[in-house]
Amino acid sequence: LARLRGRLARSNSSLGRGLLAVLGRTDLDDAAWEELEDTLLAADVGVGPTTELVENLRTRVRVEGIDDPERAKAALREELIDLVGPQMDRSLRSIGDDGLPGVVLVVGVNGTGKTTTVGRLARVLVAQDRTVLLGAADTFRAAAADQLQTWGERVGVPTVRGAEGADPASVGYTAVQRGIQDGVDTVLVDTAGRLHTKAGLMDELGKVKRVAEKQAPITEVLLVIDATTGQNGLRQAQVFSEVVDVTGVVLTKLDGTAKGGIVVAVQRELGVPVKFVGLGEGADDLAPFEAEEFVDALLD
Ligand code: GDP
Predict the structure, then answer these.
(1) Where on this chain does GTP bind (predicted)?
(2) Which mutation among 134, 205, 281, 284 tests ligand 1's pocket best, with the greatest number of atoms within 8 A of CB?
(3) How many angstroms separate the CA atoms of 121 and 92, rounded?
(4) Please, how many CA atoms are within 13 Å of residue 95, restricted to the half-sphere of its CB?
(5) How far is the CA of 165 from the centre of ligand 1 (A)?
(6) Nearest CA to ligand 1 atom 23
(7) What's the pTM value of the predicted model, to 2 decimals?
(8) 284 CB less than 6 Å from ligand 1?
(9) What does the pLDDT look like over 245-291, one tens digit per residue?
(10) What ipTM score was computed for the predicted complex, to two decimals?
């Protein structure tokens, strides 16, 4: 965990440095507040949350008579944690009710890290002594199913896949059916994400969900967003949330960007929590998201 924190801190150090540099000034004048705003905006925090944070902080500095940088930093830390939402439920609903498996659909645009996320989630669950089955419902790219199966073999869990070009919904259906038969705790379903045809995506994803749901309720729909894509990632989030009820976000590639503020923006946009973050390409580089830890890493 310390290693992951170090990586997050490095990737986001420009935001942390920028924020602390502004608050380190002896004179918190208008220009300093503007600079703070610019720093937050540049880190993809988004206009609404940025304005809110700066207003709150300004008010506190005035009302509480904060006049030294250390206290200002402590106040900034508290405000940032507030913004990230320390009370949000970030647990993964990986177990179903009435003895049914939990069914987790993993959705997102191709290349964001969906398949990697499914593999790493399987690894996390298996480490917790859970039984897991993978469903390769991205049937459009044989390579995607191969990649998922390779993860399955690495982690030691079975993968249900269809022939190339098979109906994704039928693969999802078969995976859940087999999961019920085998009595596994969790079925993780990888889906296709070709965003260029929005209507096609709607149809396909909606169908995967409806058909899978005939056997067991979907316990979680995780949307994978690549943190390095900024506003584009937010637009993708909107499209996906129109198609399926997203219950949580996995923000990948946080190791590759200084724009950690996307965490705040995406939660505001979707009204659901970031549950996991990807901090590298390795098998262990998926971490549960924690507001305080994240903010401390930002400000490190
Ligand atoms: P998919 O098309 O959405 O299924 O994406 P993949 O799972 O194939 O991932 C696309 C690429 O992103 C691969 O090269 C992954 O190794 C890489 N990737 C996934 N998650 C992360 C992450 O958290 N950090 C970094 N640096 N790379 C990642």
Answers:
(1) 108-115, 190-194, 252-255
(2) 281
(3) 10
(4) 9
(5) 23
(6) 278
(7) 0.93
(8) no
(9) 999 999 999 988 878 889 999 999 899 999 999 999 999 999 999 99
(10) 0.99
